[in-house]
Amino acid sequence: MADLPDVPTLLDAAVAALGGAPREGQSTMAGAVAEAVDRREHLVVQAGTGTGKSLAYLVPAVRHAMATESTVVVSTATIALQNQLIDRDLPRLAAALASLLPREPTFAVLKGRRNYLCRNRLNTADDEAEDAELFDPRQLSSLGRQVARVHEWAEDTVTGDRDELVPGVSDLAWRQVSVGGNECVGARVCAFGQECFAEFAREAAQGVDVVVTNHAMLAIDMTQGGHILPEHDTIMIDEAHELVDRATSVATESLTERAVGTAAKRAGRLVEPGIGERLAECADGLGLMLADAPDGRLDHIDDGLAGAVAAVRDAASACVSAIGPSPGELDPDTASDRRLALASLGEVHDAAVSVLESFEPALRDRTDVVWLTRSPSRPPSLNVAPLAVGGLLREKLFGDPTVVLTSATLTLGGSFSALARQWGLGREVTEEAAERAAAGKTEPATDQAPDPDDDGPHRAAGEPRWRALDVGSPFDHARSGILYVATHLPPPGRDGLADAYLDEIAELIEAADGRALGLFSSMRAAQRAAEELRGRLEHPILCQGEDSTGQLVRRFAEEERACLFGTLSLWQGVDVPGASLQLVIVDRIPFPRPDDPLASARQRAVAAHGGNGFLSVAATHAALLLAQGTGRLLRSTDDRGVIAVLDPRLATARYGGFLRASLPPYWGTTDPAVARSALRRLSATTEAVSAAG
Fold first, then answer.
1. What's the pLDDT score for residue 447?
2. Which of 227, 425, 580, 591 has the most CB atoms lying inside 10 A of its own CB?
């Protein structure tokens, strides 16, 4: 390490080469990341928008990788950031540092096998008639056209990466030409093993300095024993506020009539007819039981549904036994059929087991939740997921590797503790507390006030050692943004947007002369607002769902007086600096739906153990989304504007203080005249600057 320039030197060189300016928060973060990696200590860093956090962790990551001849893993939540790192940040950083290092840094991207075209599957898709029979016949012509387009693309693609197929195809079509890790027969057996795109990607990731992946892939690697990602000793987790949700999604299992039917058809090629038919009959029985089961969370399972699930479990197990162990070398077609069948059988068997076992403990002691979902376009699905993934993360993630977690939004209610508990980190312990503990003096003190919702010890044996840091933001929030809470409006009801809310939105948009991002709690509310206000206002109003989200955001950025209305993905996926966005409207505090199965079960579990379920789950969820959503306003140091929260509870409810403490320190008002006046002045200034330019 002594032969390499230190992190401040490398960071200065990178910033200068990229045409940037030194930022105090970026320098502080880079130093803290380097120190954490050297000390092998986990680090949690909140870095506000504009800090330049990507460089702040990439520079120490590159230096560590080159000094130790190891690989550093960088994990992101969104495709947008993943692509930004691979296509822009890392190539520019590598070029900027090449002259200061022994060689130019290397990097690669690694995604799940399902993201890559499978040549074997592509050439056998026509034989997979059992899948097509299960699809809605109205979809088949479209499905066929999409698969045909993938065939054409396959002749030209170098990477086989789904993200490079533009325009894309549906998940249904992509499943016909790709395989999951448990379905792959392996390069040694596969007839196309020497041409495998997924294997090319894995080979490209071996031995590089930085491998970029995503949270889902990271979670899969954890649960499968660390055999997917290259060997590594350091992990940088960007967009860390998404880690728990992505890990939960990976751990969620589903059981449907379609999945059981597919497993039966695949197994039917390899077993005696009676054995495969038994599983097919179980699929029919499960479908009948699911059709009569209630939607939502299932705290108890009736005998009929339990019997149907148990029948699936036993029939799938019988098929696996009938297929038996591998007889040795198989021809590629037989090996593929066998692998696909065992993968499908394993999924439905394991899901059935998980569903049944989840009901065995008493209600207050359960660690999993089961729920049923149905929609007009999809058959009913029985789902099971863990109530918490902190134990999994503590055991599998925060073990040997050093982990740095960062995001613009990690403190909720002014504290890191809420997300730390969800990650399984426990409480942060200060240097002083660690020394006290080492000396055997009483229980270690913490630098945070006791949490009334956490009845556990301050630091349990085996909890990972970690530190937290908030490097702030280069933005002067109090001078750049106004937080307006419409306390004169009635609290939001269950019947959608009230007329008073629509009037308020219209007045705000008129004052801002458009330039508004409307963040709504439901698609129905966003669509109603768009329909109603198009008849009142002259400004173009774009609504999510009317085109791809990417196209809508581009139009919104280009048409300065346009408005964009939408729901969840817009709360975190819009980055529009400049005059096109000067007003962010939030229709209501984004609490999870009361009937959300996971959130409601988690609230109940916290309450059953003496905690405050609402504050620990619902309010924490709302605070995180509210911070992310309102963060759309200021994307550069020159941005100015107003955040209008129409839900008066942000100012009047007891939990309002917790939510406001999760937001940057905007200047606040409850006076609608003040908010509208500020928007008019801002609009006039923007027009004057535009005219002068």
1. 34
2. 425
Q: What is the dihedral of CA 486, 487, 491, 492, to 10 degrees?
A: 0
Name the DSSP class of 592.
P
Domain 477-692 in this protein, CATH class = alpha beta
Which phi-psi region, left, alpha or beta, contains residue 239 (left: φ > 0; alpha: ψ -120 to 50)? left
Whether 47 and 53 have beta carbons less than 8 Å apart is answered as yes
pLDDT tens digits along 271-283? 998 999 999 999 9
pLDDT of residue 330: 66
Q: Which helix (H) or strand (E) holds 210?
A: strand 210-214
d(CA 552, CA 559): 10
Whose tokens are 């299960």? That residue is 134
* Phi, psi of 354, deg, nearest 5: -60, -40
How large is the average pLDDT for residues 462-483?
91
Domain ranges of the chain: 113-203, 256-386, 477-692
Phi, psi for 517 (deg, rounded to 5): -110, 115
Three-state DSSP state, 421: helix
How far is it, in rounded angstroms, from Cα 252 to Cα 258?
Answer: 17
Chain centroid to CA 648: 29
Query: Using a CB cutoff of 8 Å and minimum separation of 24, what contacts does 545-552 make?
Result: 549/573
Confidence at residue 129, expressed as pLDDT on a 0 to 100 scale? 42
DSSP 114: G
State pTM to two decimals: 0.87
Token digits of residue 114: 């399902």
Return the half-sphere exposure (C-beta side, CA atoms, 13 A cut-off) of residue 562: 16
Q: 607 Cβ partners below 8 Å, 6+ apart?
A: 613
From residue 234, alpha-carbon distances to 28, 60, 237, 408, 467 in Å are 19, 11, 10, 21, 16
Question: And the tokens for 407?
Answer: 């995001």
pLDDT tens sequence across 606-624:
998 889 999 999 999 999 9
Query: Cα separation of 46 and 467, whole Å?
Result: 11
Give 76's pLDDT tier (boundaries 50, 70, 90).
very high
